[in-house]
Amino acid sequence: MSPTPDLSVRVAGVALDSPIVAAAGTSGHGAELGAYLDLSKIGAVTVKSLSADPWPGNPAPRVTPVRGGMLNSVGLQGPGVARWREEELPELAASGAKVIVSVWGKTVADFARAAELLCGLGPEVIALEVNISCPNTEDRARMFAQSPTATAEAIDACAAAGLPRWAKLTPAVASIVEIAAAARDAGAAAVTLTNTALGLAIDLEHRRPMLGGVGGGLSGPALHSIAVRSVFECFQAMPELPIVGVGGVTTGEDAIEMMMAGASCVGVGTATLARPRAIAAITRQLVRWCDHHGVSRVAELTGVAHG
Ligand SMILES: Cc1cc2nc3c(=O)[nH]c(=O)nc-3n(C[C@H](O)[C@H](O)[C@H](O)COP(=O)(O)O)c2cc1C
Q1: What CATH code is assigned to 9-306?
Q2: H-type helices in the chain, by residue range?
Q3: Within the chain, which residues score under 50 in pLDDT?
Q4: In the chain, where the domains are located
Q5: Pocket test for ligand 1, best of 196, 225, 251, 266 (most atoms within 8 A of CB)
């Protein structure tokens, strides 16, 4: 018997059994979340962004709670693509998870190299999320996703992986629609909205910034309405461009709001750090909401807020 409601969704032709996916950076590089959840039952696992080479990340402290969420300056620490393929991917694939692999770079050439190293992955890897919300050292450390040109160059550079490219954008821009359009025109099949907002916290006793990276990325409930607005604006401007909605999703209702704004599926990050089984709870709440509201196919909710 098929479950009620039908939770299957499609993101640019990629089929997911559930609309709730693990967001990048909040469930490790591999199968770590499998200790708490059956990874074959969630939409997909987005792995923490990988660079072509190993990268040590930022100095500690790297995370701090703030009102309405948290700040992180992990700084994209990671083992590099080759070691990830060898040491992390096999266990993740064996878990039955659908995998979204995420890459980052400091230059366009870095993105190209990371993408080349990802050629020939198995069918469990369904998409390449291109995290362009990171500093571009060839552009005075402005983020790639703060420039339409750099966005296009990074997305184009990742074509070599031979996977559908999903562009992960920052909300710290004047027009997220302009950046999403640049990503789409360069070949992105979908956009992931959004990465963290920019924040900073001061340690009053030491009279210094709280985090080793000085500033950090704000995530959690405080980010939610910013992300919903980004999703809404992009869907309104480009309804044909699929959106992965991410930002402060903590309940099934938050996920439904993202979908109504225009998301085809929804990422959960900070909620998982607080409660490792959050994705299962959010999925149950979403099912209950659909049951109560007579929604038989969750995919029907995408974009309904646009009338
Ligand atoms: C500790 C931490 C690490 C993260 N690392 C990454 C990363 O490696 N790549 C990426 O694209 N986003 C990363 N993110 C951003 C999340 O994927 C997500 O876009 C953001 O946190 C907003 O969603 P949330 O409020 O549900 O956490 C990270 C977030 C946190 C909190």
Answers
A1: 3.20.20.70
A2: 81-87, 89-94, 108-117, 148-157, 176-185, 221-237, 252-261, 270-274, 278-292
A3: 1-2
A4: 9-306
A5: 196
